Amino acid sequence: RAALQSADLFWLICFSIVFVPESGCRSADASSCHEVKTAYLLRQIGPVKMVPDRPGPGESLRVCVHPGPSCCTSKMEDGYMAAVRSETLQKMRSYSFELKYLIAGHTKAYQETFESLVTFTSNLTTSLFDSAYSALAPDCRPLVFQLFSSIERHLSGDSILSLDNAVHQFYDDLFPLVYQRLLNPGLGQASAQSFSSHSVAHKLCLRRMRRDVGPFGPHPRLLLSSLSRVLGVGRALSRLLKLAGEVVNATERLTLSRECGRGLVRMQYCSHCRGLTLIRPCTGLCVNVMSGCLMGVSELGTPWKSLVVLLQRLAATLATSSNHNSMELALLAARNHVNDAILYAQLHGPHITATVSRQHHGKGCEHTRAERVCGPHAGGQVARLSSVPAVSHLLATSATSERWAATAGPAVNQRLQDRSHFRELEGSIQRYQWFFSELPEMLCESEMEVEQHTCWNGQDVVDSHAGRVVGSTFEAKRQNPEVSVRNVDPVLKGVKLRLEQLTQ
């Protein structure tokens, strides 16, 4: 915006020195179109040879029709039409550049924060298996990676992914490993040849049983509840920032209608046909034309304000979250939830093994070999191998978890808990609450910054605009005296609908 205003001011000074007497703007010499040629060239509208040397009758004009001689032709009007559309869109982009940069910057910052946090906590959870459950570690690493990848996609606003399914899938896949290697470590060795042929079916059967057997007690539910409560805020913030970026991009790709182009030419360039290359359009004329051209953009105003208010609230929540609702602590605590779930299974090992043996017939396993496929013989060899693990082992594992929580946990949380960017978003986005509602007026302000005693009303030089200026309501804008509004751009209609749906 500043660059455009500086350029306009520079050319205004040049024109004032070369062409304009002290009395202000004047009509061109009746026998010359020199000033029009100069303006045509400087604004890079088209080949200067298209401008006649002397005013003509102007009979072929379709937009800039006025009595008397004219320095314009129909081809020049086409050039003005293309130029004024391009100039208007460029001015819109210059105004929205800071907003677009703000949204893109915060979106990237949050995405990097989420990715870093999820990667860190994923590695911490993996280290649990390496240090405390080495028998499970090789097969559990991909399970942990898949769980936290799902959490990361959930945080990024993936509308398809279910956090509930991700957590349950993790524990479904974990149960066969815990059952075979911790609760019944002799299952494979006891009958290796007979068991190996049914290994896949055995695991599938155990997966299907997990939710009925409940081998991990309340801990899967506690993990899901903890994550759902606090990750919802981060997920909502990601989705709203993504939508905000889509809204700005859609307005920058706006297609200005031909009727809008005619109104812009009347406002901006028809005065040139009269040799008045420095006269500015009247404020009322500009507001009417811009309101008609940006009808679809203005319609985004109310739902956009709702989006900005939501962004402020979410940013404020993340900036001031207590430890109880901290997203960082919820992710870091996933390691302990998983550990507690495995400890619960070990403590209740005999009961879980007996329950699996009783229930295997209801899970679609082959009845003729059910004992070998989905459960050990009740009271048989493997059942005797399943026993409560040594208390010393459980205490050691729990102590390891507690030491980590007391030392690494707070240090990591302090390092990751930089909330300055949330506070920055909360304050900076507020300035743009009414951005799209006020954009027509903002564009006109840049046109009116040089004070003049007269202005161009689309047909002649006047002291002030005497016509009606449209109001802010949709119906008022449909009665626009300068640009008739028929249909709103379908892309903007779609963006408005998504804004309304998501903010609600």
Which value, in Å, is the CA radius of gyration?
A: 36 Å
What is the mean pLDDT?
A: 79
Tell me the helix content: 55-70%
Tell me the span between the first and last alpha carbons: 34 Å
Biggest sheet, open or closed, and with what strands and sense?
A: 2 strands, antiparallel
User: Hey, roughly how much beta strand do the residues contain?
Assistant: under 5%
Low-confidence stretches: 1-28, 188-197, 363-373, 376-409, 411-416
Helix count equals: 25
The outline comes out as rod-shaped
Strand ordering within the main sheet? 1-2
Q: Structural class, from helix and strand content?
A: mainly alpha
What string, H for helix and E for strand, traces the elements in order? HHHHHHHHHHHHHHHHHHHHHHHEEHH
Total DSSP E strands? 2
How many distinct domains? 1
| Oligomer kind | single chain
Topology:
Elements: H1 2-18, H2 34-42, H3 74-132, H4 137-155, H5 163-183, H6 187-190, H7 192-196, H8 199-213, H9 219-252, H10 258-268, H11 270-273, H12 283-293, H13 295-298, H14 301-320, H15 327-332, H16 334-347, H17 349-359, H18 370-374, H19 381-385, H20 391-406, H21 408-416, H22 420-428, H23 435-447, E1 455-456, E2 461-462, H24 474-478, H25 490-503
Antiparallel strand pairs: 1-2
Pfam family, one: Glypican
Protein name: Glypican 5b
Family: Belongs to the glypican family.
Please provide a written account of the structure.
By secondary structure, the chain is mainly alpha-helical. 67% of the residues lie in helices and 1% in strands. It has one domain. The chain has 25 helices and two strands. Strands 1-2 form a two-stranded antiparallel sheet. It is a lipid-anchor; GPI-anchor. This is Glypican 5b. InterPro entries: Glypican (IPR001863). It is found in: Cell membrane.
